[in-house]
Amino acid sequence: MELLQQKIREQGIIKEGNILKVDMFLNHQMDVQLFYEMGKEWARLFKDKEITKILTIEASGIGIACCAALSFDNIPVVFAKKSQGANMDSNVYSVKVDSFTKKKTFDVAVAKKYLLPEDKVLIIDDFLANGCAVRGMMKLIKLAGAELVGVGIAIEKGFQEGGRELREEGIQVESLAIVESMNAATNEIVFR
Amino acid sequence: MELLQQKIREQGIIKEGNILKVDMFLNHQMDVQLFYEMGKEWARLFKDKEITKILTIEASGIGIACCAALSFDNIPVVFAKKSQGANMDSNVYSVKVDSFTKKKTFDVAVAKKYLLPEDKVLIIDDFLANGCAVRGMMKLIKLAGAELVGVGIAIEKGFQEGGRELREEGIQVESLAIVESMNAATNEIVFR
Fold first, then answer.
1. Between 20 and 30 A from B109 (CA), which of A43, A67, A164, B55?
2. Helix B60-69 and helix A60-69: axis angle, to 10°?
């Protein structure tokens, strides 16, 4: 998606260790008009999939998922909540997710009543790198007996394994910008 | 706002201890079309205020603020991030916020570059009860030397002090539903 790539080129900051900082418009300060356009693109890419629900994860996926959902046919967004310890609440599905950036493991949970066996679920998130967050959400969908329809990602780090592995499993992954390589010294970035 | 009050009447669950559960449409599963309508109402109520930025707080304010921002004139949303301990990062403004529901204190922070002295800021959040979250965000705005234009709230608990105190200080607080009283035994709710 040209608009997103342009925004990354203009405002993204590349740091050593393959870190791409986009908190100017994506995950701290948020460009909601951009999110709305991203939603239109996902709605086009997942047309005719009869999606009933969008699932995202706290916190930086929420804004994107909510603005995006406005371009779908009146479906709700549910966000997986981060919790401190193991969740013993019998009313929720809970899984463990490893965070690459934060280098720790946390529990995320969704109330059972908001993820149903008849749901056809689109996962939306801001980043896809090694795929841990998406895998966590996929486990929640599986626990609910719901169907995963696809995955919508803002920025995929194409040089990490997450996206390739998901696609090899036959999952429709639509990343609106796929970073092939980036150079912290020159601030150059190459998109797939 | 009739639409929101109707939704609370239909789907809200009142629990002992003055707890109103609205996670069916507001803060776990999210009705984004409702959020969009709420944004149109806030845009009307804060017309001519020349707002440059919307500030909200992780996590349940984010979806509402982002959908709402689409009805304003191309302004970004910034969310205050919850952090584990005292934040020593010199690039952020950080304050402590007491959580009424979670009965604990946490730190919230905003990057200095996303809250500027020239900003005219509208705070948006899902609930207003004793006002701790709003007070925290007001402190962040003050630390930045920015101007608070007003506060947009989805549901205010009118029987707690937060809203009254803010209005007495001359702050424009626009709560789209103000709960005057509620009864857990009968599930009855009275709006102001």
1. A67
2. 40
Could you give the C-alpha distances from B63 to A70, A78, B142, B143, B151, in angstroms and in order? 11, 10, 24, 25, 16
| Residue of A21, A62, A119 to mutate for B, most B C-beta atoms under 10 A | A62
Chain A contact present for B106, CB below 8 A: no
- B-chain CB neighbours of A67 within 8 Å are 32, 66-67, 70
Phi, psi values for residue B132, rounded to 5°: -60, -45
At residue B170, the 3 state secondary structure works out as coil
pTM of the model: 0.96
Structure ipTM: 0.95
Q: What share of chain B is helix, strand, coil (3-state, %, to 5)?
A: 30, 35, 35
Closest Cα of chain A to B59: distance in Å? 6
Per-residue pLDDT reduced to its tens digit, B58-98: 999 999 999 999 999 999 999 999 986 555 678 999 999 98
